[in-house]
Amino acid sequence: MRDKRFEDLMQSVAYMASRMLPGLTDDDQRIRASGLYADWTPGSYQVGDIRNAGGQTWECYQAHDTTTYPDIQPGNAAWYTFWRPLHGKSVATARPWVAPQGSHDMYKAGEYMVYTDGLTYRCLADTAYSPEEYAQAWGVVS
């Protein structure tokens, strides 16, 4: 009986949390709730849809359907034309570095990321460049 009660409680919590997801508008909030977002699968996506893929949480910023455009998959070049990675605003929400493709996904001052060297960096000035390309824009945190 106790296991059934716990299962019901967890389903209720997941349901209520999923109802609150559309109200999250800040990247950091969305990353903190990333476990509630579905993993990316082929399909039709609208602007604002959030999915997880490749250790990142992504936001669709251009509507598309992978039935029509099958190359839009995580890791493919076309992916970055339709999806942007969310950037954390704390060490706890830092995600792996993704090279920006334009102004829509550049790193802003106060955002964090984990670079390819395994260190966590804080963005000191808005930039589309890595710590290797423009060290002045980044500070090592850990």
Structural write-up:
The protein has 142 residues and is an alpha+beta fold. The chain folds into two domains: 1-86, Carbohydrate-binding module superfamily 5/12 (Seminal Fluid Protein  PDC-109 (Domain B), Ribbon); 89-142, Seminal Fluid Protein  PDC-109 (Domain B), CATH 2.10.10. It has helices at residues 2-20, 27-32, 79-82; strands spanning 44-45, 50-53, 56-60, 64-65, 83-85, 95-96, 112-114, 120-123, 138-140. The strands form three sheets. The protein has a four-stranded mixed β-sheet, with no helix packed on it. It has a three-stranded antiparallel β-sheet with strand order 2-3-5. Strand 7 (112-114) and strand 8 (120-123) form a beta hairpin. It is globular and about 55 Å long. The N and C termini lie far apart (46 Å). The model has no long low-confidence stretch (mean pLDDT 92).
